[in-house]
Each structure stands twice: as structure tokens, then as C-alpha cells.
Amino acid sequence: MDRLPRWADVALVPLVSLILAFAIAALVILAIGQDPWEAITVMVQGSVMNAYGWGYTLYYATSFMFTGLAVCVAFHASMFNIGGEGQALLGGLGVALACLFVPWPHWSLALIGATASAAAFGAVWAAIPAWLQAKRGSHIVITTIMFNYIAASLLQYLLVNTLKPVGQADPASANFPPATHLPALNDIPLLNLVFTKAVPANVTLFIALAMAVLVWVLLWHTRLGYQIRAFGKSEAGARYAGINPTFVIMVVMLISGGLAGMMAINNVMGEAERLLGNSASGAGFIGIAVALMGRNHPLGVVLAALLFGFLFQGGAELGLWTKIPIEMRIVVQGLVILFTGALDVMVRMLLVRIFALFRPRTMEAA
Q1: Whole-model pTM?
Q2: What is the CATH number of the domain that holds 311?
Q3: In the predicted model, what is the mean pLDDT of residues 186-196?
Q4: Is residue 185 part of a domain?
Q5: Which of 41-50, 141-150, 212-221 has the lowest mean pLDDT?
Q6: Alpha carbon distances (Å) from 203 to 100, 111, 208, 270, 272
Q7: Distance of CA 234 to the CA centre of its chain
Q8: How far apart are CA 220 and CA 260, in angstroms?
Q9: Domain range for residue 19?
């Protein structure tokens, strides 16, 4: 038996990887003289055991859903888009321009306009590395990661020299008009019965979930999705079948960049309500881990985003209520990435051997 059952490959392998990651994290916490049980208790209580904690967990998860889906789409074409951070930063610029310079009469219209603008800016920023790979042979990993730094520098320049109001010290745009402010979950009827306190999670959460459904439909129920997956399996085979590689590369990166750019409607428009220089806050890179752990499937991405949202909020709680440094969440994230990415084959081989041990017994019992 050299292969796992489908259910084990999809669910059991990530679960075992996650357990191993948390076990190693517990040992690290013990090594610094702290109590692992206290750590997990504080994290759980502060992130999922009350509505206020859920409000922050869902807020972080929303951003990770967008960037995870961006990586997921590109991965199915065998393209590793590491530029989600820069695409999200440029998406924030698109949100700011749409909110500051268009007189929207209502937040719903502002949301539509800002979403389109964020997706367009993110897509354009991703289109440049895509064209370089399609036409010049430049590796997408190298160009997208370089474009992260270019995006950060460009955004800082615009904030300091163009978008910053006169007399303001910090490099940030002006506050967005009240008509563009998005309702948080505590402002939505029925949900306000659960979220009784103000939380940062907002209506963008529903857009992220809708994007997950659309990505699933695109990849597995459309002709374009078939072309993307065929190209990802074998570029030579796709060429032989008449699929245009340049078309696939450009379309995939436009979609991927657009999804990453849309992350900005959550934190720039929905939470900060102005554009800041560090608006992406590392979510573009975390999206890579989210996609890996979610097995590059939209449902898996949503679940993995919730996990990383838990880690972010739980890590903040650790910094507030224990002596464990808040950076511990980065350690846990790194361990999750290590086991679900680099050591994924090791975990799978271990489970294959375990399943092989139990297989003869099952056959004898039959």
C-alpha cells in the first residue's frame, strides 16, 4: 500500500502535521520556562471562546482567505505567486483612491467601487511579473518577491509626498469619508445579538467566502479552470492540446493579483478607514502557508485561514496575559508551515506505513 485513502490525504495528513507542530511548540514553551497548557488555554479563551475574540479571529482570517486564494489559483497553474504582499499593498492604494476621490452616497456603492479598484490595482501589479515570465522567461518567484519591495517603497513615497494631509506627521492618508465606512459584524442585524461589542470583522468576510466559492467554480467547473489545471500538470501537454501558455500565465496572475489586492477592503477600508504604510501586515506571506495547509482547495484555504486567524488573535492574547512573548505565534506559524509544507512527505510516508500495518489485519478479519 503506497497511497493513502482520499479522506486521509485530505484531512488526516494536515491534522497530524498540525498536532506535530503544536507538540514542538509546546516543547519550545517549556524550554523558555513557561507552561504550555496555560498558553493554549489563553489562546483558546481569547480567540474562540467568546464573541469578542471571534470578532478578531474572523477579521484576521478574512485577510488570509484572500491571500490564500490568490496563492491557490496560481499554484494550480504551477506558478508560485509570492507577491501577494505587494499586490495587497497596491490594492490598498486602489481602495484609498476610490474612497478619497469619489463621492460615494452609500457604503454599499463604495464597497463595490473600492473592491473593483483594489482588484484592478492588485491585478496590474501581478501582470508585470506574469508578462516577464510569459515573454522573457523570468522566474515568477524571483520577480514577484522583488515586486513586494518595490510596492512597499512606492506606497511609502506616495503616502509621504502625495496622499498625506498637510500638517500630518505620520505617513498615512486622510481618513475616509463616513459614507465609505463598512458595517462591522456588530452593526449587522441578528449578528449584533452575538457580537455585542465593537469588533474589526466586517462585511468583507462575506466577500471572502464568496470568492472562495467562485474560485472553486472557476477551477473545477469552467473551461478556463480546466485549462489552468492542465497547464499546471504539464505545460508541454497543454501546448499539444492547443492551450496558449501566455494566455494562461497572464489570466492566472491577473486573477491571483486581483484576489490579493481585494484583501485591502478588509483592513484598509473596513478597519483602519485610511491607508497606512504597513497595511498588508504580512498577510501576503501568510497566504502562502494558508494555501499549503489548505491543500490548495478553496474549502481548505477557508479552514486554514481560520486556523491562522486563531494563531494571530491567540498570539496577541499571549502577549497581553502571560509572560510568553507575542512572537511565539510566529514560532507556531513557522512550525505549521514546516510540517504542512517541507515535511509533508515525511508525515504522509509515516501514515502510509501505519495504514499498511493495519491492512493485513483487516483482510484477515474479512
Answers
A1: 0.90
A2: 1.10.3470
A3: 92
A4: yes
A5: 41-50
A6: 20, 10, 9, 8, 14
A7: 26
A8: 21
A9: 8-343
Residue 320 lies in a domain: yes
Mean pLDDT of 256-283: 93
Q: Classify residue 300: in a domain, yes or no.
A: yes
All three cell numbers of 276, joined, read: 497606512
Query: What does the longest C-alpha to C-alpha distance in the chain come to?
Result: 81
Ramachandran quadrant class, 365 (left: phi over 0; alpha: psi -120 to 50; beta: rest): alpha
pLDDT bracket for residue 1 (50, 70, 90): very low
- pLDDT tens, residue by residue, 89-107: 999 999 999 999 999 999 9
Question: 30-36: long-range contacts (C-beta < 8 A, 24 or more apart)?
Answer: 32/324, 34/322, 34/323, 34/324
Any domain includes 274: yes
Overall domain count for the chain? 1
Grid coordinates 496563492 are at which residue?
71
Residue 346 and residue 16 in contact, taking contact as beta carbons nearer than 8 Å: no
Over range 197-225, report the average pLDDT. 96
Does position 266 have pLDDT exceeding 80, yes or no?
A: yes
Cα–Cα distance measured from residue 65 to residue 28, given in angstroms and rounded to the nearest whole number: 29
Q: How many residues does the chain have?
A: 366
